[in-house]
Write a structure and sequence with these properties.
Blueprint (H helix, E strand, L loop, with lengths): L2 E7 L6 H14 L2 E5 L8 H7 L6 E6 L1 H14 L3 E5 L5 H6 L5 H10 L2 E9 L2 E3 L2 E5 H8 L2 H7 L2 H11 L5 E7 L2 E7 L1 E5 L3 E2 L3 E2 L11 E6 L4 H13 L8 E6 L1 E5 L5 E4 L2 E5 L2 E13 L2
Parallel strand pairs: 1-2, 1-3, 3-4
Antiparallel strand pairs: 5-6, 5-18, 7-10, 7-16, 8-9, 8-15, 10-13, 11-12, 13-14, 15-18, 16-17
Length: about 290
Amino acid sequence: MAHRALLLVNRNARKGQQQLEAAIAQLQSVGFELIEAPIDRPSLLPQVIRDHRDQVDLVIVGGGDGTLNAAVPGIVETQLPLGILPLGTANDLARTLGIPSTLAEACQVVAGRKVEHIDLGWVNGHYFFNVASLGLSVQITRGLTKSVKRRWGVLAYAATALKVLWKSRRFKAEIVINGQSQKVKTIQIAVGNGRYYGGGMTVAEDAAITDGRLDLYSLEIDHWWQMLAVLPALRRGTQTRSPWVQTWAGEEFFVYCPTPKSINTDGEITTSTPAHFKVIPKALPVLVP
C-alpha cells in the first residue's frame, strides 16, 4: 500500500528549485503518494502541516536547516514523522542524523520508514534542532545573504565569519545553571542541542541529538588570532581544552546581558536576551538511516 506524504520543498533553498522534480520522481518511485504544498513563506509551514494531519502518514521537508526549523511546531503538534531532503547550504541537522547529502540516498532513508524520536532545544518559546547562539553568530547570520549562500555554499559561513570577526567586541553576560551564576566577557555564547552547526562545526565532542542535554560554550577571545587558534577545536568539538572557551552541560540555562542581545536559532534571528534555554527530550519523530 502506498504511503501518503505531504511534500514541502523550499524552492528558494540552494538546491530546492533545481531538484524539486527529481525529488518528486524519486519519492514516487519508492512508493509514495505525494501531496505537494509550495512553500511561499516558511512561517506558514506549521499551519500547512496541521491542515493535512488527517490526510497523510508523514511530512517530507526539502530545504535547509532554516526551513526544517520553521516546520517544527507543526511536527511537534501532529507527531507526524519527519522525512528530510537536505537541499540547503549547511544541512547540519541531516549531518547530525547521518542522512546522506545526495537526493537519491536521502529518499531511500525516507522510504525505509525507520523512526527515531530526537530532542529539541527551546529558547523563549522558539524551538531549535542544532544551536541557539548570541554574539558573533548573529552578526554572521546578518551577513549571510541568499546570494552569498547560493554563490559560495558552505564556504559562505567561513568567509562571512572572517569578515565580521574584525569588528567583534566582547560583551558582558551572566550564565545561570542549577542556580549557580557565572559572569563572562565573551564574543559568543552558543547552546547546542544537536551535534553539528554552522556548516560543520561540532557542539561538543560527545554531543548527540538524543542525549537529553544541552551543551553551552562561551567563546572568550579578545584578539582575532586567538580565533584562528581555537577554530580547529570548534570544528572537532574539543573546545573544552581551549584557554579561551568555557563550557557547561545541563538541561536548562538562563542567560542575561546588560542590554538585550539578539539570538539566532538554527540560522534565523528569532528572539533576544534575557533568555531561558531548555531541552525537550524525545520531542520529535524523524526518519533516520
